[in-house]
Design brief:
Length: 76
């Protein structure tokens, strides 16, 4: 899908006021698709990503018990 945003259109405009330079920012989801965001919304997106990675780490926590619910932490 082509990028339809411009450098002047923040993808999150209308949610909260934009602030700073609007430019294409790398995708944090791994899709490789850049999204145009202002500095304020980019900082907020980085904060959300940090929280997601804190709550759902790549490696299992020390207290993770796979027998508790019959689940595994990874797909290997």
């Amino acid at each position: 899908m082509p990028d339809t945003t411009t450098h002047t259109d923040c993808i999150e405009r209308g949610t909260t006021p934009c602030h700073g330079t609007v430019e294409p920012r790398m995708s944090l989801s791994g899709s490789g698709t850049p999204f145009s965001r202002c500095d304020r919304h980019w900082d907020a997106r980085l904060d959300r990503e940090e929280e997601i990675r804190r709550r759902y780490p790549q490696h299992q926590p020390a207290d993770f018990d796979p027998t508790y619910a019959g689940e595994r932490w990874d797909e290997d």
